[in-house]
Amino acid sequence: MSSPTLLSPPTKPGIRRLSSSSATFEELALGPSVVVPPEHMTKPSNAHETAAALELAKHRLAGKEKGAIHGQITPPGTPPKTNFTDQYAFAFDIDGVLIRGGKPIPQAVEAMKVLNGQNEYGVKVPYIFVTNGGGKTEQERCLDLSRQLEMEISPGQFICGHTPMREMAQKYGTVLVVGGEGDKCRTVAEGYGFRDVVTPGDIIKDNKDTTPFRKLTDDETNHSRARNFGEAEIEAIFVFADSRDWAGDQQIILDVLMSKHGRLGTRSESFDEGPPIFFSHNDIVWSTSHQLTRLGMGALRTSLEAMYKAMTGKDLISTAFGKPQIGTFQFATRLLQQWRKDTHGINAPPRTVYFVGDTPESDIRGTNEFNASDQCENQWYSILVRTGVFQEGTKPAFQPNATVDNVLDAVKHGIQREADKNTKTIVQQLSEQREVIAEE
């Protein structure tokens, strides 16, 4: 069966198309947007419909849509004509699945084309990106991936490890945010609504003796804010992204954890007066351009737990978000359910979500455990690829539903599995019809 030529309709009213070569974070923060490679600004792209629909769905899910946007989503009961399937969807990890070392994995671009309709069935399949990578806003990740894959993508398609942290912004006043490059994590946290964000650089600027072996560069000094931490109480610690200075960051985190009510320069006698600490994910290792995996945030968490135990004799109580935590998969389910309601008038998630990942301990474990939980309303099917953390010849700690060479094979596997299910259903229906005729 040959694939028809698929052209996206004009962009939905309420959605702004921004060029990936010139779009700014400020523009993306103004409202629903799709990031478009320059060559697609004046011609249709098969990826537009997916990007725009999920962007609107995420805004509606967050309760941020305005009247002008609200009216552009077809209400339930009057679904538009579409060649999108509403029966299944894909969710992708990014590093090690689509991107490695900042460059696309060779089969990634072709995999996206297949999902956008260039397949033997002529069907389009919705897809989202679920990553534990931190230190960047969803808007910044959208810009990066659009440029890397040279395709239309919207911030609404992204779920980051620290995305759930936005729900805690109103709970805490002064918070310490750790990780990432420069001042980016402070920007992310403030964008989430945190009212008073401090960084390790601020603390070192206030007292240079805090970290004996780390001195701020001129650029770090300029980006750090002057403050008297003798009068401040840090109410929570959030590790948004991988630390760029393990020694200095761990020293400061331990100082705060062991303090009296988050006041630097004090030391609790009971070691139970410090603030809570949250990590955006718990990946011990991750895939980069290096031939071997590199240490991730989970390794920092493990190191902190060991040092805290050695210094206090107590276990460190901490919380991690991201994969494999169930909350990440619940949010993804709600997003896809909103998409299905908007586009097909059905207030239920797609019956199957194919999660494609490279890390058994987070991607596969999270998918399998969520699928087996009483919180899962549909089926989540795990697919492990060999282009990232998992290496051929090793046995994954958590067994996937399927293991394939790369993301293109994963997409083809899921689409073919759905086609086989449809064929089986048709055969069963025909058999039942014959039985009814025979009885008559």
Write a short abstract of this structure:
With 440 residues, this protein is an alpha/beta fold.
Which features would summarize this protein structure in a list?
single chain; 440 residues; alpha/beta; 6-stranded parallel beta sheet; 5-stranded parallel beta sheet; 13 helices; 17 strands; globular; disordered N terminus
How would you describe the overall organization of this protein?
This protein has 440 residues and is of the alpha/beta class. 36% of the residues lie in helices and 14% in strands. It has 13 helices and 17 strands. The protein has helices spanning 25-28, 48-61, 67-70, 108-115, 138-149, 184-192, 200-206, 218-223, 246-257, 297-312, 326-344, 360-372, 407-439, and strands at residues 16-19, 33-36, 88-92, 99-100, 103-104, 127-131, 158-160, 174-178, 196-198, 236-239, 277-279, 285-286, 294-295, 319-320, 352-357, 379-385, 402-404. Strands 7-6-3-15-16-17 form a six-stranded parallel beta sheet, sandwiched between helices. It has a five-stranded parallel beta sheet with strand order 9-8-10-11-14, with helices on both faces. Strands 1-2 form a two-stranded parallel sheet. Strand 4 (99-100) and strand 5 form a beta hairpin. Helix 2 (48-61) packs across helix 11 and helix 4 (108-115) runs parallel beside helix 13 (407-439). The longest helix is centred in the last third of the chain and has 33 residues, at 407-439. The chain is globular and about 85 Å long. Residues 1-11 and 64-80 have low confidence and may be disordered.
